[in-house]
Amino acid sequence: MDFADFFPVWDKLKESERESLTASAANRRFPKGSVLHRGSSECTGLMLIRSGQIRAYTTSAEGKEITLYRLFERDICLFSASCIMNSIQFDVTLAAEKDSEVTVIPSEVYKSVMNASAPLANFTSEVMASRFSDVMWLVEQVMWKSFDERLAAFLLEEANIEGSDTIKITHEVIGNHLGSPREVVTRMLKYFADEGIVKLARGSIEITDAERLRALAE
Question: Which domains does the chain have, with CATH numbers?
């Protein structure tokens, strides 16, 4: 996997610009559970996700978390280098949900090339707009959807990511993703179980009626 896999405009960059990006880049590995980036106070650099799964989330003043989006192989994370974008301060924490490998391009190097290259600047704006769309979608979900609908959608998404109807996850972790207390998650999962939609076991949830779950999510 090379840089052209991440940047569709790679062939539109000058040779010197490509060399600047590749020469400064460093590969890093993060074990599951480790934090890659902490909030707007850090400007870690642009991250290219080579493998694994990264969770981007924000935390309230009371310590409550909510997942904003996930990053997978071939994704780009710009919020870890938000200092390259004027007037953007976005408090996002990045954590590895699975063992992950990323390539980090220093913020100052990326910004220098971006300022000189219109194709890279346009591409960067498109990626940033896409991430803000993800965040706005989440805001709409929280504002207008009931918790049972959001939980159903989350379980279906997790099953799709893992490729299995059995999801290994705790109620507390689900609560962190959805921004809800663990007790609320537990009550709703018990309701789903009583209705025959899922089976609950310690540390795992099995989807037994995907059609009903899908109907709830929609």
Answer: 3-143 (2.60.120.10), 146-217 (1.10.10.10)
